[in-house]
Amino acid sequence: MSVVKINAITVPKDKQERFEERFRGRAGAVESTPGFEWFELLRPLEGTDQYLVYTRWSSQEAYEAWQSSQDFDRAHDGGGDTLASAAPHSAHVWTYEVLEYAGPKANQEKQV
Ligand code: HEM
């Protein structure tokens, strides 16, 4: 089963625009990484002020390989820390395992 790694980041209001801009210009290397399955940047609208960087991987090993790779370092060069809050607890990585998933029926039929 796939593994979901979510990076939950608190970004101060005055840095949000810059934060989103950085993601618009992101490296785009993760898409070519072995074991990578999905990425989404989620902007908070209600109930929280944390941005979520949602990533899904074929295995824990695939995620770890990417995280310790030069691609990860390059993707975060000069961006990461300065854009998150100065508080050390501003970013947390959560790990989930995918138990079930579904998409709209129409899409599933198209894939067959
Ligand atoms: C303090 C921790 C982190 C911060 C503040 C942070 C912030 C950022 C920012 C601002 C970018 C846009 C590129 C740039 O300007 O650097 C980025 C890229 C990205 N981050 Fe992080 N990040 C952190 C750690 C992580 C972790 C642990 C994950 C794993 C879920 C992750 C997943 C990603 C992905 C998938 C991209 C896009 C890479 C690509 O396009 O190849 N980040 N991150």
UniProtKB/TrEMBL annotation:
Residues covered by the ABM domain: 3-93
One Pfam short name: ABM
PROSITE patterns for this protein: ABM
Name by which UniProt lists this protein: ABM domain-containing protein
Natural source organism: Blastococcus saxobsidens (strain DD2)
